[in-house]
Write a structure and sequence with these properties.
Monooxygenase; six-stranded parallel beta sheet; 37% helix; disordered C terminus; Leu-rich_rpt_Cys-con_subtyp; F-box-like_dom_sf; F-box protein At5g51370-like; LRR_dom_sf
């Protein structure tokens, strides 16, 4: 082909290329617009970006002087070939896409650009802050405006982040250096930020994140907790480390608080005093508590009584805490409607090895699950007393078979328990030496078997008055009371 022919065909090819590029988006969108809308949108933006770059290069040619004066830009191959296809997507659409990703991917997404960093920060709901400057500078509020769960414990401890020593337990973790280790513990009073400094940070946090649902604080005063109570009306859960009785005045202002965990004294870390005074203050304000956990506190009967009288919404789960009472000798439950509505799995209940006596008086034992959990925790008891317990039938009493160290059993006013139910359990107790059965009307003398009679003969102490009606009949024999024409009494 000659040279003039080549000149005539070259513009034709260029024209066809431009025509094909311009008609490609219409082809994709008119064929099936409902099949892949997101894929079509991304393709359209890509083609539009390529066409704009091509037209700009053709309509605005760069002069030779400008190209020589401008320093060359060093762009990566990915940056030259991949423009920002997400620039035309709205913030709402991008956030919807990011919300479908795993939390581990959100961290890498923040490194793409400032916009992605800002949008991913809005999706973060829970943070554990390690540096106090992040709070004091306000960056935590700017970076994560929609927080609902904040933990600032480690940020309030003056620890060496570069240390290779990490001391931790179930409650707190801190970095240590060799200079901090001493005979009195790992942390001293001066290793924490001043309460005034912490109060300022807590105030800024509460004012910037008013939708907080859970906070974990340490060494904060009443003033700082007042800020939380005023600004965070939706706060439902709080964990408080290293505070005193009077700081709980601020906690009592959180009217919607439902879960509270107080950590007073932790060996080697910090020492604080939470006594009956603080528990009484707490009970007067936080009446909607459904769960209260006390760790390292010195509250006694008066404080616990105030909590029980004022916090009517406290729910189950307390049986699992009995295993932490290392010196408990006697447990008495009186006038209870239920034992524990949600005791949890057996492996989490534990047991009280030092417990010797269990007394249940004027309570309801209809909840067989709670009763079984109680006997499982108290399986080491030696004395078991039931008095006027409604719902103590054969199946509920059978749960006491796990208590194999019983030496004394007392039953009074338990009208549902039968002789057969009693016999099936006490015959398995090899250490039983004392038995007391009074006013249990379903236990009949006529139902006593030879095996049960043999057991009675070897007991050191036996008080057997199960059927009050038969006892009354035998006592009135020969008096004429109850017969036609006999004596009658009006009480």
């Amino acid at each position: 082909m000659s040279s003039p022919e080549r000149n005539r065909t070259t513009p034709l090819k260029k024209k066809n290329r431009h025509t094909h590029t311009a008609s490609l988006p219409e082809f994709w969108f008119t064929k099936d617009p409902k099949s892949h809308p997101l894929k079509n949108a991304v393709l359209k933006m890509r083609l539009h970006a390529l066409s704009n770059s091509a037209s700009a290069s053709e309509t605005e040619p760069e002069s030779e002087s400008d190209s020589q004066a401008r320093p060359p830009q060093r762009l990566s191959s990915a940056a030259r070939s991949c423009p920002d296809f997400t620039a035309r997507l709205s913030d709402e659409l991008l956030m919807n896409i990011f919300s479908k990703l795993q939390n581990s991917q959100l961290v890498s997404n923040t490194l793409v650009c400032k916009r992605w960093c800002r949008l991913n920060g809005k999706l973060v709901r829970s943070v554990k802050i390690l540096e106090w400057d992040f709070i004091e500078s306000g960056r935590v509020i700017f970076r994560f405006p929609n927080l609902i769960d904040v933990d600032i414990v480690q940020a309030c401890v003056k620890s060496c982040r570069n240390s290779g020593i990490l001391l931790s337990n179930k409650l707190v973790s801190v970095h240590l250096d060799s200079a901090r280790v001493s005979g009195r513990g790992f942390l001293k009073k001066g290793d924490f930020l001043d309460p005034q400094v912490i109060d300022r940070g807590v105030r800024a946090l509460a004012e910037g994140c008013g939708n907080l649902r859970r906070v974990v604080l340490i060494n904060v005063s009443e003033e700082g907790l007042n800020y939380v109570a005023e600004e965070c009306e939706t706060l439902q859960e709080m964990e408080l480390h290293n505070c005193d009785d009077f700081a709980l005045k601020g906690v009592s202002g959180c009217k919607n608080l439902q879960i509270l965990r107080l950590i007073g004294c932790v060996d080697g870390f910090y020492e604080s005093l939470i006594s009956d005074i603080g528990l009484t203050i707490l009970a007067q304000g936080c009446r909607r508590l459904v769960k209260l956990e006390l760790v390292g506190c010195e509250g006694s009967y008066d404080g616990i009584k105030a909590i029980g009288q004022c916090c009517f919404m406290l729910e189950g789960g307390w049986l699992a805490a009995l295993s932490y009472c290392g010196n408990l000798k006697t447990l008495k439950l009186q006038s209870f409607k239920s034992i524990d509505a949600s005791p949890g799995p057996d492996e989490h209940l534990g047991s009280c090895p030092t417990l010797e006596e269990l007394h249940l008086k004027k309570g309801q034992l209809r909840d067989k699950q709670g009763a079984r959990a109680l006997f499982l925790v108290c399986q080491a008891v030696r004395e078991l007393v039931f008095e006027d317990c409604w719902g103590l039938d054969d199946s509920t009493f059978a749960a006491t078979s796990i208590c194999r160290s019983i030496r004394f059993l007392s039953l009074e006013g338990c009208s549902l328990l039968t002789t057969e139910g009693l016999e099936s359990i006490i015959l398995s107790w090899k250490h039983l030496t004392r038995l007391r059965v009074v006013s249990c009307n379903n236990i009949k003398d006529s139902d006593i078997t030879p095996e049960l009679a043999t057991l009675f003969s070897v007991l050191k102490e036996l008080k057997w008055r199960p059927d009050s009606l038969s006892l009354l009949a035998s006592g009135l024999a020969g008096t004429g009371v109850g017969r036609n024409g006999g004596r009658s009494f009006r009480l």
